[in-house]
């Protein structure tokens, strides 16, 4: 296969004007501006379009930079090819469509920083014991110098690259053009050049009159312009007009050129016209068309596929390399593939068109849903790349409609390969737009590491509105059974998606990984694939890009429909088309404007750096170049190769030159202003940029020999050194020359920054340091962290500095009291570093950075440490002084020193070191690896294990040398280590017994919890033989958790419960213990249960005092008979008794099946009711309602109820005991009491200073009256029910009573209640009216009355009281007027009798009934109003019910659902898919007739009902018992229509069989001929029967 080369015939494109002026240069220069296809674009620090402008004001150092930049292009153009050539290569072209380019094929490998946890970062979690304590063995030592953080302060990037910049690669949104504060980059994103010569030919007034206005453009080896007069202008790359195609042919009669395309070999041009015609032209023989595909007149030739008349060809393209294979799409939403045959002699070429998308507009649709309008918004066939791919012979075509993306293969047959619907993320109410572009398969310089492919995959970029998606097409391996002729199988995978802020109208590939996106506001966005990162953006509004409204005439109706529907893809406007004027070819963009033609290229990396340097932003240039070198910034979009080595070689040299030029500019010309604050800030930024750049290029020699030299010569080295600090702390710089270290040390020590200096030293490579200088410095300034680090790393000595620290601790411990306390504190702080140091080394970490040591170094370091402490004379001495002097014969002197200093910290460190596997056994691997190189001390250290360490500690830490305060920590250490390492530590029983006893005899309470935890550890694997004898000792130590474990294991539940009572820190354990004993499966014996009960009785008060609710619940479950004892202990605390009984008698979860004695329950209930009177009066009635008869004694609780005011509860209890009369008397008496209280409130209302409190009290009194009135109603109604069930039922004659008979007992109850309620209402009303009259009589105080409202609303009170009376009378009336059945008993209550007795009593008690008349009149008028409302509501309900029933019956009578879709006689489809469009039309016609039918149906209801026994007339549906049918009358169908398949009306019977009426009549006609006269009679009219069911 040949390489991809796009060549032209007539030389390079000349950008000179018509006059050949020198102001412009060619688009492509032979020397420096070669189009890159197989490699990255050329690199030129000058302008690559040939425009070279020198700025003499720039520093002299920049001249060499520019000159060297011009030479950089040669290093990256070894695989480049020029656009111009002399002969076209017809072997395999590179591009088949102007919408796709063949850019570089370098692999798109986007590097990223590896973000992984550091080895030294450890996060350890440890178990927690049940109670808080000191936890001396749970802590982990940490050094002050922590591991390096992931990030450190860095100099900010240039302002134009910040997050708010238009060029920010992290910003996916469109830039805010109106943001004045957003700094702009000094370079142009795209360098545009106007093609003046071509513009003069095509856009001049002469050109427009002669050729027409340009309407579309195609770019390949030539530039073709289509015009509005149907003419095509072809230019070469020198802007010479090579050919004028179309004049004198049918093309000029076919309307304007609406689409244009150039073939793959650049020899043929295809054009689509507004009339629907398609022409192809050979460029060298353009006098007549090579091929003409005219539109099709569907009215004359309906069987021929093709574009219809006046359907504008919006899209056109060649398929593959063939000149005779085309695809096209029109504005009606139809697309076709065209294949022309070869013509021979006089035989013209024939063209076969195949429809691949859309439907003809004149085709009648029989579907129920009408077809929505559509159009092809974007269209492109897949061009050929320079690498073979399975898609090459398939002729793929991608099309975008308003609804779908469709990819169709045209060879060998048209077949849909992929479909995708519009994304849900499409913005609502936006612009309807679409765009797509292919990128073919190209060869890769390096095999893709991820896919192991030597060529890239085919990619399709497509956009709907503001959503852009990248679709990858890959070949699927053919199956083993597939034949050679089997077409390839493709896999379509949407890979990336990007969302813009506005609709996208155009998209083009500028490279294999670079996308150009044009938005509806003519913003150009550059995206980098596959990360979909916005790298650049530019405003093209001044370019006046040509666009046309091509789709709105077809799609406006669709937009209106979408506005009405609830769909996520709603749009408000159809965007104009830009695809015909926005093209890309070989990394260049071509724009067809309204008045000019321009092209542009992306500014490359060298152009951008030069622009920054020329502007004077040398710091920004260095930072940008550093980002290019490291790959942090976009690479492909600026012309850098993706291969790291190639990119580094290109950028490194220029980066060092920029740094040198910047330093010379900053220091060489500004020495006099270096010390100023503004310049100091600039120097700090310059230093940070230079340091970061040198780190990126890994050139520390240049950093310290050149960059630092400039700062040192200018006496501002402090700026450089302080800027260097964060990079050292980040481990980005680990090697510094000794001279710089000397300056670094001098600067930081002079400013007192020793701690920061120490941190930096700990991050540097010790192999490059001056050891004497560093050690002297560290000792002088007490930088022991740095001293330990340097000594360990440089000399691999881990004990020398350790000895110094222990000596320092010993000196401070033995020092006299006259030592300065601050100095003593400083020395002790330094000495305490020994413990984190040992912790790090013995766990394999470098101190103090925390990084992991190598295995060999770690092993030898541990061996040296263990030998340092645990070797020596192990013989016992009688008495060793606590702090032996140097030279004494005490065994293990170093161990004794550190134990004397801080035994707790040392043992805590050993607890951490014991977790390391170094102590598991001998290290044969190290010994074998380094035979003869290990010293005796190292060999001894390698043999140390946990057993040896513990044995030495037991030997050394003995009294009287060490006090119990220190020995207790050894006991804790052994007790904790033994269960964790039982296979490595073996101790005799007497030693463990001594440890256990020592833990129980702890010296102070601060370590009590830790000792108990240690005992738990120890007893988990050690079982002492005399445990029973140790229990008193454990109990004395208050190790309750240990005691509980022992008693639980021994099943001593009584002792266990006693221990729980003694353990005040865990009170919940008491209830858990009792619950465990009460569990059915606990298996306690009677004796054990009695012992537990005795413990509970002995600690009854403690149990209740712990938690009264839990105690009540627990005792109720375990021993309910102990409730009395519990309550007796609380005899003096009523509040606790109340909570206790509340939990027992009213638990949150009710209990069932209790067997406690009734007598004890009654006592508790009575006590609880009495307590409720004190603590919750409002709950008494609710509680009593749930009690049963006999649950309490009335005489025991009645006094408490009355004293607390719970009269309603007392009345309920009296009624329950049968004392109804006494209850009603108490109720009426209480109502009188409430009346008196209300009187007093009314009298004092006008004089009360607290009006709000008076109002609230009045409302409470009215509410109480209402409540007690309702209690009285309940009492009377209950008595009526009791009388009804107890008295025998009498006949109506015997039960009738006269008005003069005496009232019965239940009637007397009603009478008393009504009398009391009415009396209260009447009396209060009189008082209110009297107050009102008095207020009116005081005319002098009218102003005060109006300004000070009365605290009580008299009208509201009267209304509430009358409402109470009305409710009482309503209840009485309900009880007396209830309906009675024939056998139902009749009550003796009579409303009239009670009312008469009430009036008689009222007349005796009061001579005047005026007030009573007013009250009763308002009540009975309310009854009359309610009666009218009920009557009206009943009428409305009856009418509504009749309407709904009528509608339901009408819907039910409309028809039945048939069993199938076929006629039972002819077996033809009657309804459903394929039945024909006439059914739908008939159904619509029927609906219209029913809608306009005269509304005389309701007037004929009587006539229809009168003829219900006969047959109905007209269209009414006739139903019979089983064979009724629904008949649709014939709508004038002729027999010819019936013969064509439309058999007219359909009949459906109630049995759900369905027939054509014609078929049913023919069947019954045959039955008539057979002599069935009865059937003949029944078939007349609409009286039809189902033949299958009769």
From TrEMBL:
Residue ranges annotated for the Vacuolar protein sorting-associated protein 8 central domain, each copy included: 719-914
Composition skew (Basic and acidic residues), residue ranges: 1506-1538
Source species, domain of life: Eukaryota
Bias type Polar residues, positions: 70-85
InterPro entries per UniProt: TPR_VPS8_2 (IPR059070), Vps41/Vps8 (IPR045111), Vps8_central_dom (IPR025941), WD40/YVTN_repeat-like_dom_sf (IPR015943), WD40_repeat_dom_sf (IPR036322)
VPS8-like TPR-like repeats domain location: 1255-1452
Region (Disordered): 1-138, 1332-1355, 1491-1539
Family: Belongs to the VPS8 family.
PANTHER family assigned to the protein according to its UniProt record, in alphabetical order: VACUOLAR PROTEIN SORTING VPS41 (PTHR12616), VACUOLAR PROTEIN SORTING-ASSOCIATED PROTEIN 8 HOMOLOG (PTHR12616:SF8)
Protein name: Vacuolar protein sorting-associated protein 8 central domain-containing protein
């Amino acid at each position: 296969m040949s390489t991809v080369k796009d060549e032209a015939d007539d030389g390079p494109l000349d950008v000179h004007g018509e006059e050949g002026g020198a102001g412009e240069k060619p688009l492509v220069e032979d020397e420096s501006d070669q189009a890159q296809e197989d490699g990255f674009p050329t690199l030129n620090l000058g302008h690559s379009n040939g425009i070279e402008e020198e700025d003499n004001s720039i520093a002299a150092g920049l001249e060499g930079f520019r000159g060297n930049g011009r030479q950089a292009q040669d290093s990256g153009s070894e695989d480049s090819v020029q656009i111009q050539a002399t002969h076209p290569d017809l072997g395999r072209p590179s591009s088949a469509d102007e919408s796709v380019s063949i850019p570089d094929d370098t692999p798109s490998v986007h590097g990223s920083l590896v973000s992984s946890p550091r080895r030294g970062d450890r996060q350890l979690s440890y178990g927690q014991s049940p109670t808080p304590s000191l936890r001396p063995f749970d802590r982990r030592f940490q050094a002050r110098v922590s591991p390096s953080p992931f990030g450190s302060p860095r100099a900010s990037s240039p302002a134009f690259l910040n997050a708010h910049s238009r060029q920010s690669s992290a910003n996916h949104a469109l830039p805010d053009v109106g943001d004045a504060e957003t700094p702009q980059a000094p370079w142009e994103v795209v360098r545009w050049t106007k093609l003046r010569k071509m513009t003069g030919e095509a856009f001049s007034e002469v050109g427009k009159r002669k050729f027409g206005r340009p309407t579309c453009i195609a770019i390949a080896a030539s530039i073709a312009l289509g015009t509005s007069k149907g003419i095509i202008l072809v230019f070469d790359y020198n802007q010479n007009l090579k050919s004028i195609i179309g004049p004198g042919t049918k093309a000029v009669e076919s309307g304007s050129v609406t689409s244009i395309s150039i073939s793959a070999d650049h020899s043929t041009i295809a054009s689509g016209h507004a009339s629907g015609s398609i022409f192809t032209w050979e460029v060298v023989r353009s006098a007549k068309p090579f091929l003409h595909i005219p539109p099709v007149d569907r009215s004359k030739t309906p069987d021929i596929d093709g574009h219809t008349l006046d359907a504008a060809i919006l899209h056109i393209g060649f398929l593959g390399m063939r000149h005779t294979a085309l695809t096209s799409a029109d504005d009606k939403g139809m697309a076709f593939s065209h294949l022309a045959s070869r013509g021979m002699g006089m035989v013209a070429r024939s063209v076969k068109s195949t429809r691949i998308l859309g439907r003809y507009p004149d085709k009648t649709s029989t579907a129920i849903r009408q077809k929505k309008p559509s159009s092809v918004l974007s269209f492109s066939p897949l061009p050929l790349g320079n690498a073979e791919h399975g898609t090459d012979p398939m002729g793929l075509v991608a099309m975008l409609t308003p609804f779908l993306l469709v990819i169709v293969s045209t060879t060998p047959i048209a077949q849909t390969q992929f479909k995708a619907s519009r994304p849900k993320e499409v913005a609502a109410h936006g612009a309807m737009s679409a765009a797509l572009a292919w990128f073919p398969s190209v060869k890769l310089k390096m095999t893709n590491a991820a896919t192991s492919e030597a060529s890239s995959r085919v990619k399709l970029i497509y956009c709907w509105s503001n959503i852009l998606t990248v679709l990858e097409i890959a070949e699927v391996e053919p199956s083993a059974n597939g034949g050679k002729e089997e077409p390839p199988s493709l896999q379509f995978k949407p890979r990336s998606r990007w969302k813009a802020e506005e609709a996208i109208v155009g998209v083009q590939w500028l490279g294999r990984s670079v996308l150009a996106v044009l938005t509806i506001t003519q913003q150009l966005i550059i995206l980098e694939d596959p990360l979909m990162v916005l790298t650049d953006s530019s405003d093209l509004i001044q370019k006046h890009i040509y666009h046309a409204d091509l789709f709105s005439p077809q799609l406006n109706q669709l937009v209106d429909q979408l506005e009405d529907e609830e769909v996520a893809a709603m749009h408000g406007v159809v965007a104009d088309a830009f695809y015909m004027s926005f093209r890309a070819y070989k990394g260049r963009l071509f724009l067809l404007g309204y008045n000019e033609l321009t092209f542009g290229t992306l500014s490359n990396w060298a152009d951008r750096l030069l622009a920054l340097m020329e502007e004077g932003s040398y710091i920004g240039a260095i930072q940008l170049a550093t980002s290019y070198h490291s790959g942090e910034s976009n690479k492909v979009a600026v012309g850098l190769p993706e291969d790291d080595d190639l990119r580094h070689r290109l950028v490194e040299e220029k980066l060092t030159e920029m740094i040198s030029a910047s330093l010379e500019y900053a220091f060489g010309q500004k020495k006099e202003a270096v010390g100023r604050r503004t310049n100091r800030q600039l120097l700090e930024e310059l230093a940070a940029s230079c340091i970061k750049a040198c780190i990126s290029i890994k050139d520390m020699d240049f950093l310290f020999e050149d960059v630092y030299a400039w700062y040192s010569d200018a006496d501002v080295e402090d700026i450089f050194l302080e800027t260097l600090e964060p990079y050292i702390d980040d481990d980005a710089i680990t090697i510094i020359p000794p001279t710089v270290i000397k300056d670094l040390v001098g600067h930081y020590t002079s400013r007192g920054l020793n701690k920061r200096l120490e941190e930096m030293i700990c991050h540097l490579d010790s192999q490059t340091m001056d050891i004497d200088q560093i050690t002297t410095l560290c000792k002088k300034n007490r930088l022991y962290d740095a001293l330990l680090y340097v000594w360990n790393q440089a000399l691999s000595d881990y004990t020398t500095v350790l000895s110094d620290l222990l000596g320092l601790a010993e000196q401070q411990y033995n020092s006299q009291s006259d030592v300065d306390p601050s100095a003593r504190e400083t020395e002790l702080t330094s000495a305490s570093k020994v413990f984190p140091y040992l912790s790090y080394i013995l766990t394999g970490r470098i101190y103090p950075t925390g990084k992991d040591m190598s295995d060999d170094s770690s092993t030898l370091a541990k061996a040296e440490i263990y030998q340092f402490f645990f070797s020596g004379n192990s013989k016992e001495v009688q008495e060793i002084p606590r702090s032996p002097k140097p030279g004494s014969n005490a065994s293990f002197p170093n161990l004794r020193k550190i134990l004397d200093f801080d035994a707790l910290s040392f043992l805590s460190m050993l607890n951490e070191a014991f977790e390391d596997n170094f102590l598991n056994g001998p290290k044969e691997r190290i010994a074998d690896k380094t035979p003869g190189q290990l010293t005796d001390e190292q060999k001894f250290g390698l043999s140390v294990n946990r057993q040896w360490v513990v044995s030495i500690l037991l030997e050394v830490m003995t009294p009287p040398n060490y006090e119990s305060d220190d020995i207790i920590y050894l006991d804790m250490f052994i007790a904790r280590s033994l269960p964790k390492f039982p296979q490595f530590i073996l101790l005799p029983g007497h030693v463990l017994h001594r440890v256990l006893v020592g833990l129980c005899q702890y010296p102070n309470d601060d370590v009590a919890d830790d000792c108990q935890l240690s005992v738990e550890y120890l007893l988990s694997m050690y079982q002492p033989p005399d445990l029973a004898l140790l229990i008193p000792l454990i109990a004395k130590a208050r190790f309750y958790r240990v005691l509980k474990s022992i008693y639980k294991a021994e099943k001593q539940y009584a002792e266990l419960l006693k221990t729980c009572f003694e353990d005040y820190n865990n009170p919940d354990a008491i209830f858990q213990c009792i619950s465990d004993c009460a569990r059915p499966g606990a298996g306690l014996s009677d004796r054990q249960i009695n012992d537990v009960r005795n413990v509970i009785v002995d600690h009854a008060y403690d149990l209740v005092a712990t938690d009264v609710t839990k105690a009540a619940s627990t005792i109720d479950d375990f021993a309910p008979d102990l409730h009395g004892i519990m309550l007796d202990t609380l005899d003096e605390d009523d509040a606790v008794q109340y909570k206790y009984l509340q939990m027992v008698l009213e638990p949150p979860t009710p209990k069932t099946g209790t067997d406690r004695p009734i007598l004890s329950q009654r006592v508790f209930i009575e006590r609880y009711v009495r307590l409720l009177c004190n603590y919750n009066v409002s709950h008494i009635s609710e509680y009593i309602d749930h009690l049963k008869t006999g649950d309490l004694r009335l005489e025991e609780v009645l006094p408490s109820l009355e004293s607390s005011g719970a009269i309603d509860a007392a009345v309920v209890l009296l009624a329950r005991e049968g004392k109804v009369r006494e209850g009603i008397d108490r109720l009426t008496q209480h109502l009188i009491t409430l009346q008196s209280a209300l009187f007093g409130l009314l009298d004092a209302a006008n004089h009360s200073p607290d009006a709000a409190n008076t109002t609230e009290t009045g409302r409470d009194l009215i509410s109480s009256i209402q409540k007690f009135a309702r209690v009285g109603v309940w009492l009377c109604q209950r008595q009526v029910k009791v009388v009804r069930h107890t008295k025998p039922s009498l006949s109506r004659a015997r039960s009738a009573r006269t008005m003069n008979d005496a009232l019965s007992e239940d009637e007397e109850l009603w009478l008393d209640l009504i009398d009391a309620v009415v009396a209260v209402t009447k009396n209060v009303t009189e008082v209110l009216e009297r107050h009102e009259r008095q207020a009116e009589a005081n005319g002098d105080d009218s102003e005060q009355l109006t300004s000070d409202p009365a605290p009580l609303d008299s009208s509201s009170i009267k209304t509430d009281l009358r409402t109470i009376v009305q409710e009482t009378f309503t209840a009485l009336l309900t009880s007396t007027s209830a309906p009675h059945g024939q056998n139902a008993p009749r009550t003796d209550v009579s409303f009239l009798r009670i009312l008469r007795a009430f009036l008689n009593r009222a007349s005796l008690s009061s001579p005047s009934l005026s007030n009573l008349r007013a009250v009763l009149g308002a009540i009975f008028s309310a009854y009359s109003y309610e009666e009218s409302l009920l009557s009206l509501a009943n009428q409305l309900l009856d009418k509504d019910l009749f309407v709904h029933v009528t509608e339901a019956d009408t819907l039910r009578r409309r028809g039945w659902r048939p069993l199938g879709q076929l006629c039972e006689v002819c077996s033809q489809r009657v309804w459903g898919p394929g039945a024909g469009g006439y059914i739908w039309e008939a159904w619509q016609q029927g609906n219209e007739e029913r809608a306009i039918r005269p509304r005389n149906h309701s007037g004929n209801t009587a006539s229809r009902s009168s003829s219900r026994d006969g047959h109905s007339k007209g269209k009414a549906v006739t139903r019979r018992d089983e064979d009724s049918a629904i008949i649709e009358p014939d709508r004038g169908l002729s027999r010819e229509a019936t013969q064509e398949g439309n058999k007219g009306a359909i009949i459906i019977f109630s049995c759900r069989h369905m027939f054509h009426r014609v078929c049913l009549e023919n069947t019954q006609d045959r039955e008539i001929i057979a002599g069935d006269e009865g059937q003949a009679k029944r078939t007349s009219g609409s009286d039809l029967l189902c033949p299958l069911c009769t």
